[in-house]
Amino acid sequence: MSGKTEKLTFKDITSPLTNGIINNNATFRLVLGTCPTLAITTSASNGIGMGLSVLFVLVCANAIVSLLRNVIPRKVRIPAYILIIATFSTIVEMVVRAFLPDLYDKLGLFLPLIVVNCILLARVESFASLNRVIPSIMDGIGIGLGFTFSITLMGIFREFLGAGSFFGIPINPIITAELPMTFFILPAGGFMVYGLLMVVFNSVVDKIQKFLDNRRQVNSGAKSIKGRISLAETETQGGK
Amino acid sequence: MVNLLTEEKETSGETTNVSEPRKQNRSLKRDGQGKKMNESLKMIIVLGLLALIASAMLAVVNYYTKIDENQQIKDEIDAVYPSGIRDEVDVSSISDYMGAEIKAYFIAEDGANIIVAKANKADKVCYNAAGITIIVIIKEGKIDRVLSFSHSETPGLGEKALREDYLDQYNGINTDLIFIPEGEFISSSEDSYFNPSLVSGATYSSNGVSLAVKAAVRAYRSRGN
Predict the structure, then answer these.
(1) What is the ipTM of this complex?
(2) Collapsing DSSP states into helix, strand and coil, what is residue A97?
(3) pLDDT tier at B92, thresholds 50, 70, 90
(4) Which of B154, B165, B199, B205 to substitute to test the interface with A, most A CBs within 10 Å?
């Protein structure tokens, strides 16, 4: 994939995308970027805002690092990566501040802190610096979407249980007047929801993977049996 | 005299030229130093160029996203108090009150005092770092309205203290009834003063609102009202 002359296959392009969302899910699988995950997921809209901000920074940083991977000297690669990530996270901060002031106020310190989010540095260092531009962009999109999905899911759960609303809209005034469990909006509730969702996500993904592996094995077994039968048939025909 | 560069040494009757390895060593050293120099130069150039491009990009984005906070406040006031602004008071002369600052002070066409006060995060005041900014409209010695301008309090928790139904408790309160102690922030006071109710589970946010209101009333009083 990293070779200069090799042509990119469809799988080379799409696999980083699906891997980023499921197998390398930053929140539930790699357990990266935990600080913003726990801190800002008090509402679903915060989760979407933070996730999309990280997605933008990740895609841009991956693309630039991949483009410059042969130019950046190895000894100064980390400062160079941080510089690139910091540039894009500052751009995001400026844009959100100008056009989405409410979201800017809610995300607070965690927006500029995207620069030290380990998801970014991890992907830039382990993927973008070794791969070509298109797979790196796809990896950025995959990981970013996976992160957005995870923290939005957490936000939905915490907001629903803790504030009795969905994306800021009260579910039912009769229910929300009595039932919201403030605990889920607090940090302790964040840890609890994080742990529970992690268990559910991993068990579901593992089961699906096992099912797919079994089906593949069955298919390959059937193919080999078919192959043997056809081989035997040709041998018997040849014998006759 | 011994010529160091072309020194010849007699060893067991054979004459060998020792200057060649030395020359090679020196040239190797020079090559190594040259490589190091090149590497260092490359590092400096790459990082310098990256920094230059980054600063140029940020300058362009900053140009298009720059916000005039004062204009933003004026727009918000126009939306909530359409009577129009007659005058703007210089807030630089108004001192901060226990970490709460006056962001803007306007006099409306009908004589109302429109004060934008911000309570910053402090001990037992405000839960989130962005603080609480409110608009306090004082008319004829009474608080006409208290409105939320911006905050980052937790939705469903601290945010309850910024809701209209909570802020409405200040409406119609005489400014003389607002207790403004100096030295330490006290959320409640003697019965002769107005004691705002606190939101259960959101005491810090309620304190933030209370402090901002006190700062606004203090600024109002400082103008001789």
Answers:
(1) 0.76
(2) helix
(3) confident
(4) B154
